Amino acid sequence: MESKPETPPKATPVITGLTEDEARARRARGLGNQVALSSSRTYLQIFKENVFTFVNNVIFGLGIFLILLGQVSDALVSVGVIVINLTVSVVQEIRAKRILDQIAFITRPSATVIREGVRKKIELGEIVAGDSLVLELGDQIVADGRLLGEGEIQVDESLLTGESDPITKRAGDALYSGSFCVGGSAYYQAEKVGAESLSNKLTASARAFRRVKTPLQQQVNLIVRVLLLVAAYFEILLIVNSIMDKIPLVEGVRMSVVVIGLVPNGLFLAIATTYALSAVRIARKGALVQQSNAIESLSHVEILCLDKTGTLTTNMLKVQTLYSISTTDEKLRRALGDFSASFESNNRTASAIGETCPGTAQAVRESMPFSSNYRWSGLALDSGMYVLGAPEAILPVLKQTDKLTTQIDEWTKQGLRVLVFAHNPKVVSLRDAKGEPKLPAGIAPLGLIALADELRPETRATIDDFRKAGVELKIISGDSPDTVAALAWQAGFDQGQEAVSGIDMARMNPEQLNEIVKSRSIFGRVSPQQKEQMIELLHRQGKYVAMIGDGVNDVLALKKADLAIAMQGGSQAARAVADIVLLENSFAVLPQAVQEGQRILTGMQDVFKVFLTRIFYVALLVLSTAAAGGFPLAPKHSSILALLTVGIPTIALAAWAKPRKVSHNNVARRIVHFVLPAGLTLGLAGLGVFVGFLLFPAIISGSFSVLSSLEPDPGGVRLNIAQTALTSFSIFCGLLLILFVEPPTKLWVGGDRLSGDKRPVYMTIILFITYILILAIPALRSFFELAALAWFESLLLLGLAIIWAMFVRWMWRSRAVERYLSLGYGDE
What we know:
Helix 2 (43-51) runs antiparallel to helix 4 (72-104), helix 4 runs parallel beside helix 24 and helix 25 (667-695) runs antiparallel to helix 29. The protein has four domains: 20-38 and 106-202, Distorted Sandwich (Calcium-transporting ATPase, cytoplasmic transduction domain A), CATH 2.70.150; 280-314 and 456-593, Rossmann fold (3-Layer(aba) Sandwich), CATH 3.40.50; 319-452, Calcium-transporting ATPase, cytoplasmic domain N; 663-828, no CATH class. The protein has 30 helices and 23 strands. The strands form four sheets. It has an eight-stranded mixed β-sheet with strand order 10-23-22-21-11-18-20-19, sandwiched between helices. The chain starts with 19 loop residues before the first helix and ends in a 7-residue tail after the last helix. It is elongated and about 110 Å long. Residues 1-12, 201-210 and 699-710 have low confidence and may be disordered. A hairpin with a 2-residue loop joins strand 14 (376-381) and strand 15. With 828 residues, the protein is of the alpha+beta class.
């Protein structure tokens, strides 16, 4: 990896690090930091999670049992349909993974190392034991080691310990990979790398706890668990029936294969495929999905919390103006320049000051890095003690601040960020007796610094898009409330709404705090802990919350949110816990991601309708045909029915779904509106077909005598004819059902809104022709155990399917089921 050598930080111990030859030698001895980085699931995980599910394992087991009983073709067809669905899903996921891995390559973690006296960026895999690494604010510690040189830093080890309070580290203290620098900067030496450290588990450590299941995933889990119980109940009935009627073992196993097919295992495949395709689509627009369900999760968001700096603004700070106090402008600039040059922390504020106020690095006696907890930083130089920080932190220890307050208020109302620079000519400690940060007594103001941060050009339009989508926005920032409010107004927030101060929030009781978080939208001077607390309060109010941030101070809130979004240009800490990373540092892509989430939901609703209608229908048939003296479907019949009406169509419907605003409150009602009339009428019609062909098996020869049904059925000829007729009728109806799920014209509107998409029509025609060919070709018909039906019988079944389709359309349009059950209509 090419890198541009940089000069090490000033005013720090001289550290030359290893030579390139020494690094190569150590790597050759096995002392390298070999890591396996992945932006998504591995190929093995994709294969295992798709193939070895509970239901699949049961079907595979039944298939092996059938083979042992000599029913090889039954086993191959039953397992073969599963394999076809699995193959399509796995191929789609692998293709998506390859694309995402290519895009994620640009966001891979890196480290800054000292080699031969110069700094350069290298990949994690190039680190070796003994390397001297540079640690800046927001960086992740990538190898176990110890702090070098003087000074101190604050480290967040919450991903390792669960404790969110920063821990102060000084020279010689141990550092652990997986933690983050949240204050100061330093050098540290890598001691444990590769398998001996936690580096290989960085990604898992950062996100393992964020296995947040979306409402869609929860619904699918519930459906599958309920249907597992139903299938288990049916299996018990089969066993009892087999014992009482002395059904052969082979037939019992064949029936079990059909019953276990009631469990919609393909729902998981459809979701996985849909997530993968959506992740690829949104990655091409500038957002990298790190959690597979993140895009769907975004469509559920009710409240979006934004950090101001780096989210609404470009985070390209510039010194707008200086205001000198008790000194000249020239002396103020020189003092600020020396302060900035002497500080090791190379944050954006220090860089902005350094560009405007050049200075010379001075010998540092003591330093206090900036932290969002106390909001100031300080240095003890030979010329005295200097502190730089937020007005709220510095002004309380100053005297005669009225003039300062007036100027600060004027600037903050313009949306500027204001800092106070103060000085004490005496060198006093920056810590109290316990070693905690403490502003020194006797400091006097030298001046004020106004920093400008430009609003992102797309911010206002993006906020409008979110509002149109029904998402409420809240800004929670660590900056001055007046500054935050001024920028929020520029971004399109209500001009009359004032910002709430985190300082005031700290004095509120729980009831007041809950009400203010619920009713207000602009918050300033909010600490990291308060951001986390606000997310928790919104959760208690029943809200689905997303958080966008880029800094270390946003990490606690990002962890707490239902959906965490980080900027690519933000800290490693924020990116590590994020579900989505915005590659172009712009949240303008998120409204498009919301549309992708809506695409997932509309697609999965279509999939639910197809799956649940088939399950409801087959379950009714299994129960009702028992009284007619036969099992409705053979394993091969069930397999071809599932493949042509569910397996192939659902994957296509999920992939072709269009974004559409979904009312989450009525999802279940819309599915019931579709499934109940379709499944119930199809079950009754299917029962009629099965019984009719079972009672009149001689239709082929033109004899309509019912007496033939009273005679023995050697070889199960009558049953096979009835099963074939039922299978044909079910496939015809199932294919027509696809057109009702995605109505191409107004003729097909009934169970769902007009789609206008013609692709399902073409797919239906292809699948229909496929089945006709299976019926027409003797070898295929024999393989699938289908009886030869006369042409007029096939036309009769097709005609009955069309009649059923028109009848069920009438039921949907008249809302007959809703009227009967006295249900509200809801929205369609």
